[in-house]
Amino acid sequence: MRRIVAVGLMSGTSMDGIDAALIATDGEDVEAFGPTAFRPYSEDERAVLRAALAAATTLTDRTARPGVLAEAERIVTDAHAETVEHLLAREDVDAVRVSLVGFHGQTVFHAPARRLTVQIGDGAALAKRLGIPVVHDFRAADVAAGGQGAPLVPIFHRALVRAAGLSGDVAVVNIGGVANVTRVAADGSLIAFDTGPGNALIDDLMRERTGAAMDRDGLMSLSGQVQAQTLAELIADPWFDLKPPKSLDRDAFSRAPVARLSTADAAATLAAFTAESIARGIALAGGADRIVVCGGGAHNPAILRQLAAMSRADVTTADAHGWSVDFIEAQAFAYLAARNRAGLPISFPETTGCPEPMSGGVLSLP
Ligand SMILES: Nc1ncnc2c1ncn2[C@@H]1O[C@H](COP(=O)(O)OP(=O)(O)OP(=O)(O)O)[C@@H](O)[C@H]1O
Ligand SMILES: CC(=O)N[C@H]1[C@@H]2OC[C@@H](O2)[C@@H](O)[C@@H]1O[C@H](C)C(=O)O
């Protein structure tokens, strides 16, 4: 395929907002990173999204939008359209120069064992409003074929690792609401899976105890003490020893074990829980010489310090390699949309457990 300019859009499990990023790619190589934009959800919008997650637990049909799910889908679609319109206007980019949008949508339910994964967001409506073809619904085909439907970013991580010429075995770790790892071995082979919690438990603790949306710069976690017994209780969950492929829904783990702790100790212990489950995941993947961290958790020194202490690898953040800590997932969905148009697979037995390399995503034309 020729090189195209694509916009990628990600609204992740943290539900902090929408990341948008332009890239130039032929679906194999990333030829250039372009401008980015972030559009936070308002507190009201976030409350609707949280209600949608609760409502979605009873879904059996991935296309049904009962009750609050219909309102949540409208909010998600409109907010994504606004984000792209803002980005293109700010950068003075004419929509005709953009060939494609990769639209992840918002995951409201993920249970691959039940062959069900639900991302809300109306791709057809977005294509019409923007006047740009949109690829959306990236996870459904993989899950229908028996895969986990996640993580999908690994093939993008590998493209970045190869282009950077990083030596040795490299683990790219994304710390979003949930955390996931991609291990790119020195021989180019790939293994990827979700490792456990990212920031979601810490965000939920902070909202409940202080009303803040996050533990900004890890200040609360850094002021507390990791409670070893509680951490041991959290990490004793047999899920962490399960062999990949494996993936998680946002609320797969409970923060009940930290309920009796002070806010500072609870935050410190949850940050250590995230770090230890990532370190275990990297070991399960075969270990790494280098760990490159991306996602919002890369801004939390409490997580990063614990991770560095628990692993013997060289730990850096994505920015140190010229990649983007905050927009790597949005860039990945632009890349995955381009792969869809190029007829290239987006998921693999080694990343989602699907039976064979699979294409993914649905195209909606304006
Ligand atoms: N300055 C900061 N200090 C501490 N934590 C931060 C900071 N900035 C972002 N975060 C954390 O990162 C989260 C957002 O991360 P990110 O945008 O990577 O997640 P996501 O894309 O929503 O999730 P996922 O990757 O699971 O889909 C916030 O909710 C917050 O917990
Ligand atoms: C079902 C779902 O939306 N999963 C997300 C979530 O957030 C992080 C982790 O869990 C990852 O598996 C996935 O997102 C990234 C973008 C992925 O598919 O690679």
Please provide a written account of the structure:
The structure is a single chain. This protein folds into two domains: 4-150 and 327-364, ATPase, nucleotide binding domain (Nucleotidyltransferase, domain 5), CATH 3.30.420; 154-321, 2-Layer Sandwich (Nucleotidyltransferase, domain 5). The longest helix is centred in the N-terminal third of the chain and has 23 residues, at 68-90. Helix 2 (68-90) packs parallel to helix 3 (123-130) and helix 8 (228-235) packs across helix 9. The relative contact order is 0.18. The model has no long low-confidence stretch (mean pLDDT 97). Helices cover 36% and strands 22% of the residues. Strands 1, 2, 3, 4, 5, 6 and 12 form a seven-stranded mixed beta sheet that branches. A hairpin with a 4-residue loop joins strand 4 and strand 5. The radius of gyration is 19 Å and the shape is globular. It has helices at residues 43-56, 68-90, 123-130, 140-144, 154-164, 200-210, 219-222, 228-235, 263-284, 301-310, 328-342; strands at 4-11, 17-25, 30-40, 100-111, 116-120, 134-136, 170-175, 178-184, 190-197, 290-294, 314-317, 362-364. With 366 residues, it is of the alpha/beta class. The protein is built from eleven helices and twelve strands. The protein starts with a strand and ends with a strand. Bound molecules: adenosine-5'-triphosphate (ATP) and the ligand CC(=O)N[C@H]1[C@@H]2OC[C@@H](O2)[C@@H](O)[C@@H]1O[C@H](C)C(=O)O. Residues 10, 12-14, 16, 174, 176-178, 198-199, 203, 214-218, 295-297, 299-300, 329 line the site of adenosine-5'-triphosphate.
